Structures are given as structure tokens and as C-alpha cells.
Amino acid sequence: MFIFGISGAVGRLLARKLVERGDEVGGLVRRDEQRAELETEGAGAYVGELADLTADALAVMVRGCDAVVYTAGSNGGDWKVTTAIDGDGVLKALEATGLAGGRRFALVSVLPEAGRGERLGRARESYYAVKKLVEVTVSESLLDWLILRPSLLVDRAGSGAIALGAAQPCDEIARDDVAATLAELLHEPRIRRQILELNQGSTPITTAVRANIR
């Protein structure tokens, strides 16, 4: 498995859960010390700036991986960063997966309703617009893609229980539960070419994932 955003909150949690399952995990980080930290946890990493790398260069990194997961995100900051990470970065990773002969690509996106009722600034509006356009491109890919839209992310211990399906209300969910759900989804090849929304809930993660097999 290869994780873009492996040094981020969700990506780091996902890497740990996949390593615990016995998966070989790699990713892309920006600094040597991040790579060293990941190595102590059983994951490997390349060092580089995503914005500076071509799809061909990324293809070398992801070749041979069972799945490529994109968890990197700008969190709605400067529009240039949003375009580079939430937009162009996803497109390059998607292209690289195809160039490397990979089949499975998973994208962590955002619930469209997450900002409803708020006075969003231009940067935040751009963030949602870029996320939507990227989802369109991923959904038109010939790969076995998966788009996961989590609700508002919070830092707390995961409950192990979620609500997962084609449509969910916007509430909140622990990053730990997002990572656990992703790990389960990546190990269920029958879930493919779907957009799933994720929220806190009362259904055990394994059960919720299996309920979405089509």
C-alpha cells in the first residue's frame, strides 16, 4: 500500500493499522526525519515535494503496490496550496497509479455539506470546489477507485462504530475511526467504484463495510 499524506493525521494512523495487519506500507514525506520516524513504525517512505514531482516520478514510487491511497489535504488554506495538494496532487497520483499498472486508488475527500450554514471565505469556497472537481476526475477513471467522504474530523479515541453509506448527515468522526474504516475498505476488493460517506454511528466498522458490498 502507498499513502500520499502518510505523515498527516489520518495517513499516519492508517499506516499503523495497515502495518499491524501485516501489509507492506510506503508513502511520500517532505523531510528525512519523517522518513526515519516512519521506519521505526514499520513503514517506508520516499522524501520529496509532491508539487515538484511528475506523475512519471510518482509512478516509480507506487509501482507494485496493491493500492494507492490519497489522504493529503490543505484543509482549505491558501488557494495555491489547495490547488497544488487537493487538486493537482490527486491528479498526478491518479495518473501515476495507472502508469505503474496499479488498479486500486482510494481518495479521502470531504462531505459537501461540511461548510453549510457558515460564512465561508474565498479560500474555503475554493477548497470545496477543487475537491468536487477532483472527485469527478477520479470517478471517471478506469481504475478501481473509491472516494471516502468523512464528516468533520476530530482528534479523540475511535469508537470502532460508524455510519457508512451513499449518503450521511454531516456530524463528526474521530480520525482514528476514519483510518480504521479505510484499512477495512482497502482489504475489501468487492467495494470498488463507489463514493461512500462516513460519519460516527453505532455499526461496527467491519459490519458497516460489508454492508456496502455491491
Automatic annotation (TrEMBL):
Q: Which Pfam families match?
A: NAD_binding_10 (PF13460)
Domain NAD(P)-binding residue range list: 5-189
Matching InterPro entries: NAD(P)-bd_dom (IPR016040), NAD(P)-bd_dom_sf (IPR036291)
Superkingdom of origin: Bacteria
Q: What is this protein called?
A: NAD(P)H-binding protein
The record lists the organism as: Paractinoplanes aksuensis
The taxonomy runs: Bacteria, Bacillati, Actinomycetota, Actinomycetes, Micromonosporales
